[in-house]
């Protein structure tokens, strides 16, 4: 994914990018929650596998997406588009 400088985007481009990032962030959160629930279920069943620890690896990606979402929200507030 290429780096986009938010301050150089026009208002329309920023709103479009914000909508896209919000959708991606929501999808990542849902996937993370589902993986966490499946990990808990496998631990309760006493069947620990390599995929049980997948949410730990995916947490970093979700945190990075959250940080990008926060930056986008700040830029929207600066421009009074929110």
UniProtKB/TrEMBL annotation:
Protein name, as recorded: 2TM domain-containing protein
Transmembrane segments: 24-44, 50-66
Organism: Sphingobacterium wenxiniae
Keyword tags: Membrane, Transmembrane, Transmembrane helix
